[in-house]
Amino acid sequence: MDRRTEHAVLALIAAPDQGPLAAWTALTDEASADGVLRDQHGEMIAEVLRQYIPSAPLLDRLTPAIEGFAARWPAAALKLLVSLLTLEHDRCDTSGLRSWVLHILQLTGLAESCENKAMLAAACVTAKLCEPDRGVAVRIHALHMRLAPGGSAVPSDSDLVQFLNAVPVDRNISAALADTLIARWPESQILLRDSHASTLFKLKAVQHPVVFGTLLHHLTARKYVAGPCAERLLAFSAPVYALLCSALPLLPRLEAAAVEWAALATATDRPDNVRLSGVLDHVALDSDALTLLGPASSNRWISAADEITVALRVCPEETGLIVGSLYLLLAQRGQVPPDAAAAALKALLLQLPPRGFDDGENLRRVCMVTTVLVAIAPRMALPAGVRSSAVKFTAKARDAATPPEAWVLSALLRALQCSRV
Questions:
Q1: Dist. CA 152–CA 238, nearest whole Å
Q2: 120 with 90: CB under 8 angstroms?
Q3: 243-252 confidence digits (pLDDT tens)
Q4: Per-residue pLDDT tens over the stretch 235-270
């Protein structure tokens, strides 16, 4: 990273008054007349902006500078805004950041004038699935709908997700599927860079290993994806794969419990107190997974928790399998390191606030997570501070939820308050 570029960007973000703005203007005016070098200069600036914009104290002050940057380097600006639109960061106000990105897209007209609308449409799909602010999610959805007609002639990343979901799993036609996928998306980067599609592929490979495992074999055999790249981006690590396979028997139980919770939550006369117990009993972590994860001192436990957490954030439609694996991880009691247990518990709690604007999907996810937390609460022994934080976070999610979700979260609150979590 060029230190002068970094200093100019940091000065602009910290205090965009006349002095730092002059340094920023000098930096952007340095672009060479040579097309390639000019583009490289813009991409270098965009990379620095991508790193520091999320920590900006006041995003609106950056608007004029980013408008000018977009006018000079529209392609680099679009990649920057797409990256910020899909950013997930615990220490950043991602809702405020996405709202600002939408404002910039409107001011600059990049959404309508850009050549790569498919990339922006795919970012909208990912962003609206993980956006907790319903108002922002509706605006992202509206942008996605505006982009859809213009990008419908070319397969987009969202089309790729639909393709993976439509793969028949009752018969193995992986060779034909590989031919179709390569024909529709000739560049493998479309699959590899779409975190939603690549994570969904990994989860499908756990649930249907014959079909998707063979499909991945065909893709590597046809040189569509290099072997090491496929192992890194289209397959889970060995411990996480074994952990998810152990959770497969839990999936029907979680689905049934979620249906039961949802039915009670949406009933006209909701019961004041309800307890679903025994749903997740008699399911243990596979011995292969325990062997691969190693002793409690091993960092593989924390890496596994982080890997599963990312999958949960990116692929909310597969909540059941993922939260089932987190349940098995947490159920190990003394074997799982405290840091890994805290990360897993935090990942579950982060699924409780409403996301996007699909009330039915929100209720289903909350019911599944509640089933796991109610089952695991009596079996965990985390510090009192962690329990207090979990209770506060759940109460906050309940206050922002619709009445059915709030009823489910009230039941979860009672379980947390009466447990050792």
A1: 38
A2: no
A3: 999 889 888 8
A4: 999 989 999 998 898 888 888 888 888 888 888 777
Q: Which is more confident, 419 or 125?
A: 125
Could you give the CA distance from residue 274 to residue 267 in angstroms, rounded to a whole number? 13
pLDDT tens digits, one per residue of 36-47 = 567 788 888 888
Quick one: CA torsion of 12, 18, 21, 23, rounded to 10 degrees? -100
Q: How far is CA 147 from CA 110, 125, 143, in A?
A: 11, 11, 6
Q: CA dist 412 to 118, 361, 373, 415, 419, Å? A: 40, 18, 7, 5, 11
Q: How many helices (H) and strands (E) are present in the chain, helices listed first?
A: 24, 0
pTM greater than 0.85: no
**What are the residue ranges of helices labelled H in 208-249?**
209-221, 227-233, 238-247
Q: How far apart are CA 332 and CA 356, in angstroms?
A: 33
Euclidean distance between CA atoms 120 and 134, whole angstroms: 20
Cα 201–Cα 204–Cα 209 angle in degrees, nearest 5 = 115
Reference 46, options 98, 90, 81; nearest CA is 81
Report the alpha-carbon distance of residue 221 to residue 337 in Å, rounded: 39
Extract the tokens encoding 143.
């942008």
Please report where in the chains the tokens 């005016």 appear, as a residue: 29
Q: How far is C-alpha 68 from the chain's CA centre?
A: 31
**What tokens were used for 177?**
């599927």
DSSP secondary structure code for residue 335 in this structure: G
